[in-house]
Amino acid sequence: MRSAVMKMTKETHLNRQDLQGNSWILETIHLQDHYPPTVSELSIQDSASLASSSSDTHSHISLSPKRKEKPFPPGTIIDKFVIKISRLEKELIDEKIAQFVYATNSSFHLTENPHFINMVQSLRPGYSPPSRADVAGKLLDKVYDREMEQCATALEGRIVNLSIDGWSNIHNDPIVCACITTEEGKVFLAQTIDTSGNAHTAEYLQVAVKAIITCEQKFKCLVRSLVTDNAANVSKMRRKSRKGIQS
């Protein structure tokens, strides 16, 4: 209605004196004096001018399309993009690698070989193999203690055979090894004795046998047979040992 009234007053050129008897029209005009016209009340010329001004303004503005950011799903954390290994997992893998080195009689330097490290890390990213010092130290003690416990559990109360023989280690040091064989044919390395600097006489070997027999106390098994080679010193040692046992 307001627009119609204003249009009517403009087209008929009415003034305030002509509208004295129409108070509601005067009130409408009074409001028009205080408030700016709405967009619908703009003349065609004003609208064209406004459009031209807006066009000039926007012609200097370069609008580039906004890239839609893809938010990560709720609960996404950086840990999913980082390969980590816990302390417990590392200790377990370290022990497995150390067992491999001992079982294959490999050099402790193996764990520091670049090709070995690359192979292990390709299998388990984020993991670094133990150093040779760890393989030769704390890991060796840990694996040895656990293996001894397993041997004691497997041999407790069993009747076994004890065999001894003279060997040489990788450094060509002379040693005497004692192995325990069960009735099922399972073999356990029970003890090794370093004989460096000692002549392998019958008397010395007899002492060695007595030390090896202590395996009965260590593994709580019963030794019922003894096997050796047929060397002269070993044969003499067997005879002396037999006499000692009979006496």
Q: What's a concise summary of this model?
A:
This protein is of the alpha+beta class. The protein has helices at residues 2-12, 23-34, 44-59, 87-103, 114-123, 132-136, 138-155, 202-213, 215-219, 232-246, and strands at 159-168, 174-181, 187-194, 222-227.
Describe the structure.
With 247 residues, the protein is α+β, with helices and mostly antiparallel strands. Helix content is 49%, strand content 13%. It is built from ten helices and four strands; from the N terminus they run H-H-H-H-H-H-H-E-E-E-H-H-E-H. It has a four-stranded mixed sheet with strand order 3-2-1-4, covered by helices on one side. Strand 1 (159-168) and strand 2 form a beta hairpin. Helix 4 packs across helix 7 (138-155). The chain is elongated and about 100 Å long. Residues 52-64 have a biased composition (Low complexity).
What topology emerges from the helices and strands here?
Layout: H1 2-12, H2 23-34, H3 44-59, H4 87-103, H5 114-123, H6 132-136, H7 138-155, E1 159-168, E2 174-181, E3 187-194, H8 202-213, H9 215-219, E4 222-227, H10 232-246
Parallel strand pairs: 1-4
Antiparallel strand pairs: 1-2, 2-3
Helix pairs in contact: 4-7, 8-10
State the main characteristics.
single chain; 247 residues
Measured distance between first and last alpha carbons: 137 Å
Shape: elongated
Return the string of H and E elements.
HHHHHHHEEEHHEH
What is the structural class? alpha+beta
Which strand order does the major sheet show? 3-2-1-4
- Count of DSSP-assigned helices: 10
What is the assembly state of the chains in this entry? single chain
Low-confidence parts, pLDDT < 50 over ≥5 residues? 4-17, 24-35, 38-42, 56-61
Q: Whole-number radius of gyration?
A: 50 Å
Largest sheet, in brief, is:
4 strands, mixed
Beta-strand segment tally: 4
Helix content: 40-55%
In round numbers, the mean pLDDT is: 74
Which band does the percent of strand residues land in? 5-15%
Keywords: Metal-binding, Nucleus, Zinc, Zinc-finger
Region (Disordered): 52-71
Biased composition (Low complexity): 52-64
Subcellular location: Nucleus
